[in-house]
Amino acid sequence: MCRWLAYSGSPVLMEDLLYKPEHSLIVQSMSSTMGAEPTNGDGFGVGWYGDRDTPGLFRSIEPAWSDRNRHDMAAHISSPRVFAHIRAAIGSPVQQTNCHPFRQGRWLWMHNGFIDGFHAMKRDLALAVDPDRYADMEGTTDSEMLLFLALTFGLEDDPPTAVARAVGLVEETAQRHGIRFPMQGTMATTDGATTWAFRYSTEGKSRSLFHSTDVSMLKQQYPDNPELHELSDDARMVVSEPLGELRGAWREVPEASCVVIRGGEETITPFKPLMPARIG
Amino acid sequence: MCRWLAYSGSPVLMEDLLYKPEHSLIVQSMSSTMGAEPTNGDGFGVGWYGDRDTPGLFRSIEPAWSDRNRHDMAAHISSPRVFAHIRAAIGSPVQQTNCHPFRQGRWLWMHNGFIDGFHAMKRDLALAVDPDRYADMEGTTDSEMLLFLALTFGLEDDPPTAVARAVGLVEETAQRHGIRFPMQGTMATTDGATTWAFRYSTEGKSRSLFHSTDVSMLKQQYPDNPELHELSDDARMVVSEPLGELRGAWREVPEASCVVIRGGEETITPFKPLMPARIG
Amino acid sequence: MCRWLAYSGSPVLMEDLLYKPEHSLIVQSMSSTMGAEPTNGDGFGVGWYGDRDTPGLFRSIEPAWSDRNRHDMAAHISSPRVFAHIRAAIGSPVQQTNCHPFRQGRWLWMHNGFIDGFHAMKRDLALAVDPDRYADMEGTTDSEMLLFLALTFGLEDDPPTAVARAVGLVEETAQRHGIRFPMQGTMATTDGATTWAFRYSTEGKSRSLFHSTDVSMLKQQYPDNPELHELSDDARMVVSEPLGELRGAWREVPEASCVVIRGGEETITPFKPLMPARIG
Amino acid sequence: MCRWLAYSGSPVLMEDLLYKPEHSLIVQSMSSTMGAEPTNGDGFGVGWYGDRDTPGLFRSIEPAWSDRNRHDMAAHISSPRVFAHIRAAIGSPVQQTNCHPFRQGRWLWMHNGFIDGFHAMKRDLALAVDPDRYADMEGTTDSEMLLFLALTFGLEDDPPTAVARAVGLVEETAQRHGIRFPMQGTMATTDGATTWAFRYSTEGKSRSLFHSTDVSMLKQQYPDNPELHELSDDARMVVSEPLGELRGAWREVPEASCVVIRGGEETITPFKPLMPARIG
């Protein structure tokens, strides 16, 4: 099972976000996931926004816990918006181009889960991708395919609708192939200003998704925690796994929902796939 | 520019074939290509036939001249049929799944050259691939696409016709995209019993292709060369570059030709793409 | 914690030994260790004897469970004597030269364990290595140092004594550095004809070591198991972990012992470090 | 042959320094070296100073021209002081710990050249290293050994003297081993505030070394070159190869010299090894 986190807020050193739970309350138990625990060992990736138009991207197939370059990079780059992902390969080759996050222009995309029956449906889904984008797919994963379908359906203009249509297409294609529960997982995407995260599975038993609660409230509750006080009030995280030991720090995103993080403002709305037939 | 060799004959230690020009007349100057010269440094691959139904495959993105595992493997495996390839990437990511040879079932495939305008044509070509095979493509190269098109058009039954149809499809697709000279290169394929090699370019200025001449004749000419005498009379090589210093050891394959090596018997026939329209 | 196995007997395909527990009784549950379980992910190595003077060696820092080349090699090489090792790095860099087995001439060496206080003692131990061999150490591990100390003390002539002196030197050096329990682990070495395995720790709480029991006896007990009957009667395995579900297949090597496997004959003798002072 | 550059001055994006000759006059032809030319393909490294106490370090054994992570990192990190190095391995394993620059505390070190007879002298040189630092050597190169000898002889207090003593020790050791011309190459080191570069060979035929001339003077000569005008007046580079097409931009460092760059001030002094005997 993959794991991921999406951070936005005041610039943080990636090292603090990914490696130093003792210095950063919010990610404190993330360390067990991103840093030490070797369970997810088929690739690591981090995307971040800096001064450039496109986000930076570092992906590696070395086990996350042994890559020294990554440690050093994390110790020298700070960013107000970071996507990080650890991969557990399910079938697809272990190679950089299959590591998350995926980047297209200003956008980043990552996924924890899978499309059941992907091998059988792959060609049909690929045909639905915008022909002008087809040759830009570099890897072989279902996750990258979801990004390209979402781009095809307008990700850059209206992410929730685009993702709903992408997932709808997957479900409709699956029906034709006799696959019952094709879609599983949580997805996150960002344009550098807003983060959208989705929790959905066809079966209605989706992998977990959590978001952090209001930092200012936490500051009041924990006046003696210096790490908390360095974060801006609008700092937010969305994570695939329940993290941290601080009571009240995390709130589960409901089944079949979309979370939108824009500055310090969070909105949760229901997520429902849009079948192509209904789009007309 | 990539380079490759295809050997068939009495079993040879891969080390002798790839690394020891001083011990093996036929490949003597191959060493400059496969062993030491770092010009082609974006991946190496070797496929070989042993006791198993499918050929063995070893592919690596480490520079060919620094991979110790490859040296050791080459020192311990002998085979009567070896395909070896050194890659110079043109655009596609440097990753194992983009290294030659490509394997499908009992078949191996390798290519030195490129499809001009591949990025623009990729989707059209992918759509022509047998839908049941589409999801088996693991990499992103034009070379792998050629293999899958050839498989689609009957490689396993009639390789020359299948390759002619694959190249014909590329040329027909290129016409629609306004690409003048799409096809360039030499290709080799084998089922473990016969080797087929092709030299062709749309422009009529193809990359070089050479095949070794009759070993028994060489033995007569060079009675004092012990390495030559260890090879069986039916040992043959097809190579992308003119190799060796032995006069008369190599013969150029003519432009637009197909060489078939079956045991010690070589047949050279003209190669001409078959346009889909003419197949009808 | 690292894991290893040492096989000797009739030639087996490495694939059967390392990946196919269902086809090979003796290694059946080894698969959980060598194949699938991602716990030990800092490097893999296998050494084997073939027709050459020196054993073959394949070492990789890719996670053991994702390296395709290794799978293919294992499917095409059979050998009557195989050492295989999965590494869990403790401090030393994850790099090929730190992967086991280590090879010097005809000898292979592997280790599961560590030298406590190695960083502090490293220089002293390195000074004790035969000056002519010093520059041949390629990695930075305590395990490789043990091999070089053993070589210095006569591994090639009398392995049990050489290893006893190497461990004795480590313990004597540790005393001077105030390190109480320096030595921990199991070690195996072979010259291609005999295998020696050692279980020892200064504290007397050594990591586990098991050896297989008489194959001919197993054949009688399990007349219906075809895999067992393909093995020669002198086939033997020594393994770091208790493997297999077959009752009576494995016997624990006692604390502070040396197992010698020569053909189908096993000898277990007490192992006791030889302090340099006592050697004088 | 390795290649390196050492930059100091106003913060530059590493991408501009390493990849964009068209945007940065001074490094314009460096691109042929650092970016595209695959001649030096056994490892790449870059060290840079940022907000942290110790410099950042990124080292990779992927061919310099194919590592995507490095491109991305270079596009997102700017620094006022950068060391970059491309390695051509001479014997030592191709592994991260053998890539330059080497880092110890605040110091970086890189080298283009070799110690002739290093294998024979390695133990003697290692014994001369400060025992407290011995176990910190992670790789197996002569270049790293030079750093540790220099540290032993006071690099942190007086770099020119420390390097002179390190080289003197190498030459004295070589005499005992009957090696005539042991030392060859150019070296650079920095503590983050000052850069010291050395050109020296025992034989007196040293590899090349160049430094950039006064940027303010260049600005006057080329008033229309915008890239030049973005650099601060104290920007300086020292490089192993003569770079750039701008007349007067580069000045050769004389044989047996030490260049010191402190802000915009350059000092060149003779460099002469200090034999241990003369020190005593």
Round the Cα radius of gyration of chain A to an integer and report it.
Answer: 18 Å
Number of helical segments of chain A? 10
The end-to-end span of chain A amounts to 36 Å
Total strands of chain A: 13
Low-confidence stretches of chain A: 21-40
Give the mean pLDDT of chain A. Answer: 84
Oligomerization state = homotetramer
- Structural class of the helix and strand makeup of chain A? alpha+beta
User: Helix-strand pattern of chain A, N to C?
Assistant: EHHEEHEEEHHHHEEEHHEEEEH
Q: Could you give the order of strands across the largest sheet of chain A? A: 3-2-4-1-10-9-11
Biggest protein-protein contact in the assembly: A-B, 17 and 17 residues
Indicate the percent of residues in helices of chain A: 25-40%
Principal-axis shape of chain A equals globular
* Major sheet summary line of chain A: 7 strands, antiparallel
Beta-strand proportion of chain A: 25-35%
